[in-house]
Protein backbone atom coordinates (compact mmCIF):
# COMPACT_ATOMS: atom_id res chain seq x y z
CA UNK A 1 0.00 0.00 0.00
CA UNK A 2 2.96 2.37 0.50
CA UNK A 3 3.86 5.02 2.99
CA UNK A 4 1.63 8.04 3.64
CA UNK A 5 2.67 11.14 1.73
CA UNK A 6 3.44 14.51 3.28
CA UNK A 7 4.16 13.57 6.89
CA UNK A 8 7.02 16.01 7.50
CA UNK A 9 8.77 18.65 5.48
CA UNK A 10 12.34 17.92 4.49
CA UNK A 11 15.00 20.11 6.00
CA UNK A 12 17.14 20.25 2.85
CA UNK A 13 16.34 19.90 -0.83
CA UNK A 14 18.94 19.20 -3.48
CA UNK A 15 17.81 20.50 -6.85
CA UNK A 16 18.09 23.53 -9.06
CA UNK A 17 14.87 25.39 -9.87
CA UNK A 18 16.02 25.73 -13.48
CA UNK A 19 15.85 21.94 -13.80
CA UNK A 20 12.11 22.17 -13.07
CA UNK A 21 11.47 24.61 -15.93
CA UNK A 22 10.42 22.69 -19.07
CA UNK A 23 12.95 22.78 -21.93
CA UNK A 24 12.05 25.35 -24.55
CA UNK A 25 10.01 27.44 -22.10
CA UNK A 26 9.69 31.05 -23.28
CA UNK A 27 11.27 32.44 -20.10
CA UNK A 28 14.33 30.18 -20.55
CA UNK A 29 14.77 31.65 -24.03
CA UNK A 30 14.36 35.21 -22.83
CA UNK A 31 16.72 34.69 -19.90
CA UNK A 32 19.40 33.45 -22.30
CA UNK A 33 19.46 36.82 -24.07
CA UNK A 34 18.45 39.14 -21.21
CA UNK A 35 21.26 41.22 -19.77
CA UNK A 36 20.15 43.55 -16.99
CA UNK A 37 23.64 44.21 -15.61
CA UNK A 38 23.25 47.91 -16.46
CA UNK A 39 19.96 48.25 -14.57
CA UNK A 40 21.22 49.05 -11.05
CA UNK A 41 23.44 51.93 -12.17
CA UNK A 42 20.65 53.25 -14.41
CA UNK A 43 18.16 53.26 -11.53
CA UNK A 44 20.47 54.44 -8.75
CA UNK A 45 18.97 57.93 -8.72
CA UNK A 46 15.49 56.45 -8.11
CA UNK A 47 16.51 54.78 -4.85
CA UNK A 48 17.38 56.17 -1.43
CA UNK A 49 19.91 54.77 1.06
CA UNK A 50 17.55 55.52 3.95
CA UNK A 51 14.21 54.06 4.93
CA UNK A 52 12.79 50.60 4.39
CA UNK A 53 14.47 48.21 1.95
CA UNK A 54 13.07 48.60 -1.54
CA UNK A 55 12.25 46.01 -4.17
CA UNK A 56 15.29 44.91 -6.14
CA UNK A 57 15.02 46.61 -9.55
CA UNK A 58 15.96 43.45 -11.45
CA UNK A 59 13.33 41.43 -9.59
CA UNK A 60 10.71 44.03 -10.41
CA UNK A 61 11.64 44.18 -14.11
CA UNK A 62 11.77 40.38 -14.39
CA UNK A 63 8.35 40.10 -12.74
CA UNK A 64 6.95 42.69 -15.16
CA UNK A 65 8.45 40.85 -18.14
CA UNK A 66 6.88 37.56 -17.02
CA UNK A 67 3.57 39.38 -16.57
CA UNK A 68 3.72 40.96 -20.02
CA UNK A 69 4.71 37.68 -21.69
CA UNK A 70 1.80 35.83 -20.13
CA UNK A 71 -0.79 38.63 -20.17
CA UNK A 72 -0.98 39.03 -16.41
CA UNK A 73 -2.41 42.52 -16.00
CA UNK A 74 -3.11 42.51 -12.27
CA UNK A 75 -0.19 43.25 -9.94
CA UNK A 76 -1.88 41.20 -7.22
CA UNK A 77 -2.18 38.21 -9.57
CA UNK A 78 1.37 38.68 -10.86
CA UNK A 79 2.79 38.55 -7.33
CA UNK A 80 0.68 35.45 -6.63
CA UNK A 81 1.69 33.70 -9.87
CA UNK A 82 5.40 34.34 -9.32
CA UNK A 83 5.07 32.61 -5.96
CA UNK A 84 3.27 29.60 -7.44
CA UNK A 85 4.77 29.11 -10.91
CA UNK A 86 8.20 27.46 -10.90
CA UNK A 87 9.24 29.01 -14.22
CA UNK A 88 8.31 32.54 -13.10
CA UNK A 89 9.96 31.92 -9.73
CA UNK A 90 13.21 30.81 -11.42
CA UNK A 91 13.12 33.59 -14.05
CA UNK A 92 12.87 36.20 -11.30
CA UNK A 93 15.97 34.78 -9.62
CA UNK A 94 14.14 33.81 -6.45
CA UNK A 95 15.10 30.91 -4.23
CA UNK A 96 12.58 28.78 -2.38
CA UNK A 97 12.99 30.76 0.82
CA UNK A 98 13.22 34.27 -0.65
CA UNK A 99 10.60 36.82 0.29
CA UNK A 100 8.28 38.13 -2.39
CA UNK A 101 7.27 41.74 -2.71
CA UNK A 102 3.78 42.50 -1.45
CA UNK A 103 1.50 43.50 -4.32
CA UNK A 104 0.85 46.96 -2.85
CA UNK A 105 4.57 47.71 -2.45
CA UNK A 106 5.21 46.43 -5.96
CA UNK A 107 2.44 48.61 -7.34
CA UNK A 108 3.65 51.75 -5.55
CA UNK A 109 7.19 51.19 -6.85
CA UNK A 110 5.99 50.54 -10.36
CA UNK A 111 3.61 53.49 -10.60
CA UNK A 112 5.51 56.17 -8.70
CA UNK A 113 9.20 55.37 -8.75
CA UNK A 114 9.51 54.70 -12.48
CA UNK A 115 6.63 56.77 -13.87
CA UNK A 116 8.82 59.73 -14.84
CA UNK A 117 11.72 57.71 -16.23
CA UNK A 118 11.80 55.88 -19.53
CA UNK A 119 13.46 52.83 -17.96
CA UNK A 120 10.65 50.43 -18.89
CA UNK A 121 11.01 51.47 -22.54
CA UNK A 122 14.77 50.88 -22.34
CA UNK A 123 14.28 47.44 -20.85
CA UNK A 124 11.70 46.59 -23.52
CA UNK A 125 14.09 47.65 -26.27
CA UNK A 126 16.94 45.61 -24.74
CA UNK A 127 14.76 42.50 -24.58
CA UNK A 128 13.45 42.90 -28.13
CA UNK A 129 16.96 43.52 -29.52
CA UNK A 130 18.33 40.50 -27.67
CA UNK A 131 15.51 38.31 -28.95
CA UNK A 132 16.02 39.54 -32.51
CA UNK A 133 19.75 38.76 -32.35
CA UNK A 134 19.06 35.10 -31.62
CA UNK A 135 16.04 34.99 -33.93
CA UNK A 136 13.58 34.58 -31.07
CA UNK A 137 10.57 36.63 -32.03
CA UNK A 138 7.80 37.27 -29.56
CA UNK A 139 4.37 37.51 -31.10
CA UNK A 140 1.69 38.89 -28.86
CA UNK A 141 -1.45 40.93 -29.06
CA UNK A 142 -0.69 44.49 -28.04
CA UNK A 143 -3.35 46.29 -26.08
CA UNK A 144 -3.49 49.95 -25.30
CA UNK A 145 -4.22 50.91 -21.72
CA UNK A 146 -6.13 54.14 -21.22
CA UNK A 147 -5.57 56.26 -18.12
Give the overall shape: globular
Report low-confidence residues grouped into runs of 5 or more: 140-147
Helical stretch tally: 7
| Cα-based radius of gyration, to the nearest Å | 17 Å
Assembly state (oligomeric):
single chain
Percent of residues in beta strands: under 5%
As a percent range, the share of helical residues equals 40-55%
Largest sheet: none
Number of strands: 0
Structural class: mainly alpha
Between the first and last Cα atoms, what is the distance in angstroms? 59 Å
Order of helices and strands: HHHHHHH
The chain-level mean pLDDT equals 77
Structure overview:
There is one protein chain. With 147 residues, this protein is mainly alpha-helical. The chain has a domain at 19-42 and 56-133. 46% of the residues lie in helices and 0% in strands. The chain is built from seven helices and no strands. Helix 4 (75-84) crosses helix 6 (103-113). The longest helix is centred in the C-terminal third of the chain and has 15 residues, at 119-133. The protein is globular. The model is unreliable at 140-147 (pLDDT under 50).
